[in-house]
Design a protein that fits this description.
alpha/beta; 6-stranded antiparallel β-sheet; 5-stranded parallel β-sheet; globular
């Protein structure tokens, strides 16, 4: 069987226990539908069969959450897990992914909670003087974690744009700005000998982290719509990371965390002008209050990458970043 070992093709777990590659192989050779209960992040290929994790976190040539015999879908992947409260679900999800790798740390509650539980080295990337670079540095200091600081220069951004733009599915300014952040993080992880980066992505979509959630409206509908866009974001970021031989891992997108989050009413996620209230309450058990309750800008803004793209566009005589991207060769 191919692609069932830890590494770029991912890993498999069931009921909170990571399964050794030999056991995965034995189960699948006995019954291809054994993959239906697998959790984790994986793409598996064996004896003409293929299976991919439920959210399609690991890249593969088949739809997420499917088991195929040749080109015929024969089953769905629905991870088996014990339902728990949110805190236990998050701890389990992070610990399952903490045997190796680094944490992409920005200083916000999402990544800081992952870092506090994982106790892995961290990487923070951003332009000099950016919110993320300062926030990540401070969070790592308070959590007493080793942290590599990647100070991105204007020349770094300009040099990286053509290559990163060629990798991402949607070639627009927003996607590029986020993909550039992941490019610098993944490259630093690779240079340090890591093939896994733990990310805080997914928390905004599960717990109401965007500013639009503060407006009156159907919060449940907004959450559902934003969550539905995650597979596209994952594909974008994994494409960039894969070019560096790295896989991004998502504890908040673990099936048990998704189930626990969806059991929480929207009014407990966003209320009193506070976003991600339910997540922050859990984080307060692991983090200093100044981190657990701190508001933070999105990655592309907090890192300073978006502002640098705007500056680069002006430098090239363009009115907008979109106009600049249209002129990038490739």
């Amino acid at each position: 069987m191919r692609d069932d070992s830890p590494g770029p093709a991912g890993w498999v777990e069931e009921d909170g226990v990571v399964l050794p590659p030999g056991e995965v192989r034995a189960r699948l050779l006995q019954d291809p539908l054994a993959a239906s209960s697998f959790g984790g992040e994986f793409f598996l290929s064996w004896d003409g069969y293929r299976a991919r994790d439920a959210l399609g976190i690991v890249p593969g040539p088949i739809p997420p959450g499917t088991i195929l015999d040749g080109d015929r879908v024969i089953g769905k992947v629905c991870p088996r897990f014990r339902k728990t409260g949110l805190a236990e679900a998050i701890v389990t999800a992070v610990q399952l992914r903490s045997d190796r790798g680094v944490v992409a740390l920005s200083g916000g509650v999402d990544s800081a909670l992952v870092a506090a539980i994982a106790r892995r080295p961290c990487i923070v990337a951003g332009m000099e003087g950016s919110f993320d670079l300062a926030g990540g540095r401070q969070a790592a200091r308070e959590l007493r974690l080793d942290c590599t600081e990647v100070t991105v220069t204007p020349a770094d951004v300009e040099d990286a744009v053509p290559g990163v733009l060629s990798l991402i599915p949607e070639k627009n300014p927003l996607d590029l700005s986020i993909a550039l952040c992941w490019h610098f993080i993944a490259r630093s992880a690779r240079d340090a000998g890591h093939d896994r980066v733990l990310s805080g992505q997914g928390a905004d979509e599960l717990f109401g982290g965007y500013s639009r959630y503060l407006a009156d409206g159907d919060t449940d509908a907004l959450l559902a719509a934003d969550f539905a866009r995650l597979p596209g974001q994952i594909a974008r970021d994994q494409a960039v990371a894969a070019a560096e031989g790295v896989l991004i891992s998502y504890p908040y997108l673990d099936a048990r965390v998704i189930a626990a989050a969806r059991a929480i009413p929207a009014g407990e996620k966003v209320s009193g002008g506070i976003r991600k209230r339910a997540l922050r309450k859990v984080a307060a058990e692991f983090l200093p209050p100044g981190i657990a309750w701190k508001e933070k800008k999105a990655m592309q803004y907090g890192s300073g990458i978006w502002r640098e793209l705007q500056r680069l566009a002006r430098k090239r005589g363009c009115r907008t970043v979109g106009e600049y991207l249209a002129r990038v060769p490739g």
